[in-house]
Known about the structure:
The structure holds 2 protein chains of 2 kinds.
Chain A: E1 3-8, E2 11-12, E3 24-25, E4 30-31, E5 40-41, H1 43-58, E6 61-69, H2 74-77, H3 79-83, E7 87-92, H4 102-116, E8 121-125, H5 136-144, E9 147-158, E10 161-168, E11 171-178, E12 181-185, H6 197-205, E13 209-211, H7 213-216, E14 227-233, E15 242-243, H8 249-262
Parallel strand pairs in A: 1-6, 1-8, 6-7, 7-13, 8-12, 9-12
Antiparallel strand pairs in A: 2-5, 3-4, 9-10, 10-11
Chain B: E1 7-10, H1 20-36, E2 40-46, H2 50-58, E3 63-68, H3 77-91, E4 95-99, H4 104-115, E5 119-123, E6 125-128, E7 135-141, E8 146-152, E9 157-161, E10 178-183, E11 194-200, E12 213-217, H5 226-237, E13 240-243, H6 245-249, E14 270-274, H7 280-283, E15 291-296, H8 303-306, E16 309-312, H9 315-331
Parallel strand pairs in B: 1-2, 1-4, 2-3, 3-10, 4-9, 5-9, 12-13, 12-14, 14-15, 15-16
Antiparallel strand pairs in B: 6-7, 7-8
Helix pairs in contact in B: 3-4, 5-9
Amino acid sequence: MPIKIAVFAKQVIDPEMPMAAFQIDSAAQRVVTPPNIPPVVNGFDENAVEAALQIKDAQEANVTVISAGSSFALDVMKKPLSMGADELVLLQDDAFQNTVDSFFTAQLLAAAVRKLEGFDLIICGRQASDWDNAQVPLGVAELLGLSCIALGKKVEVKGDTVLVERLIPDGYEVVEAPLPALVSVSNELGQPRYPTLRGIMAATRKRPTIWSLADLALDTGLLEPRVTLHELFVPVRNAECEIIEGDDEADAGRKLALRLREDKFI
Amino acid sequence: MAKETGILVIGEAPGGELSLTSQEVLAAGRQVADSLRQELAIGLFGDTLDAASRQAIAHGADKVYSVTHPSLAAFQVELYLSAMETLCREVNPGIVLIGRTNEGREVAPRLAFRLGVGLAQDCLEVAADSATGKLLANRPVYGGNAVAVLSCNYTPQIAAIRPKVYEPSEPDASRQGEAVSFPVDLDASMARSQVIEVVREAAEGVKLEDAGIVVAGGRGLGGPEPFADLEELAKLLGGAVGASRAAVDSGWAPANYQVGLTGKTITPDLYITVAISGASQHMAGCSGAKAIVAINKDADANIFKEARYGVVGDWAKVLTALTETVRELTQD
């Protein structure tokens, strides 16, 4: 029996876009989608896809990517398929606006996992680069009663357990948990693989499964927002930078040291 | 059920001593409690908590719940969560505050989900509205490019507070408070995961988080070798070396050097950045530095918007002269 792995992936505004393109619509309390910059799969979620595919390299596995949102750029969301994932499930509904409410998002993803049935392992990115909430992975583990290991940098399946090297402030620890389990991963996992030509062609032929809110049959009480967003703003930076100049760069370096001594920093 | 009231801090007392982050969260909680005229309590978890309990009162707690069980001697996430959930349900607080430490970042969301409530994650500031009792939380979003102001719709309102943002209050040993023993029933089978090995990659010398001076390098260094130059300057200054995520992802510096939103938060007196552009997600980890120095060849780089001192130019030439002059100055 192949091991069945689910990966959560979120479509986000490209965090590498020029800062000048970053704009907030204060009235709508949201970040304006930049018109000429395509969205991307959240970087940590690409690490999660990579972790799943490394397991698939080692043993027979089926990898299903699940995403929730109100609209999708299909070519972007097919990237995990072109990297080697098997299936794509999109939870798409006007009610699934990009929300700061992790409780809501976790309910949707947990419902999809229940509906799809039979997963041995869920892998997700540690957080999304838009709201940086880092709550959905831990929340889904709680909702589904799974063992949970956060901040993995290496994920291996051994029989019916998962072994994870998880980051701690001064190194890492090796943690073991029985399957089914949920693991969140960080960028320390390493560069995600590039799609291959064969992968891209296979992905083109694949059709995602699309489910709306009604398909998930969730209790409406669970969908009540848990948090309210009152304001969203760009913080003001008011540091006055004193540019230290010299005859040449070495001279500027010397003068910098003297200035720092004068101001008693060193 | 009695109406939810009071502020409960979820504290940490590794080795029986109240952690620095817990002292910071108590300082935040004291402000909230005073503006709401409510009680500030703290829950401590472990096997021996008498010393930490006294420290918590000296740092502003009105009441300390010592949640004890032999299996709480060391942190295990499910056992600690179970104890925290039991305490929250029993105490029934209006607001719960948790320090977003390595352990806090894991337990805060899981506790919120167990209680069926929302969580304001990674807060830089919390303040209570005394009219409504609502806790307003400021938190960085979009990699630090924006700040969101949130409140929670259900009680308890839970906020996870970023370490090193609040200053602990001066401990007052004469402060009086109530110490409550709160034994819990736990079952070792609640533990769903097991740590089988711990690998420490601690750098020699001063710890990055504690250093008064940090010298950090970024993508512009172009390779791993220049980190030896940064080490040299850091050593002369009695400081530590850090790195941007770009440098860590390129494999030039170990993961535990990373400063930023997903790395370490540091608050040195002096932060010397070498060839770091200053992306928001990096600045999120160092904006508490008293003064930032930027050495970068691109005069338009964001780092100059955040720095107090800047040199525009080739980092290698600037750094060599800076290091030599520092050597002369520190030999005096």
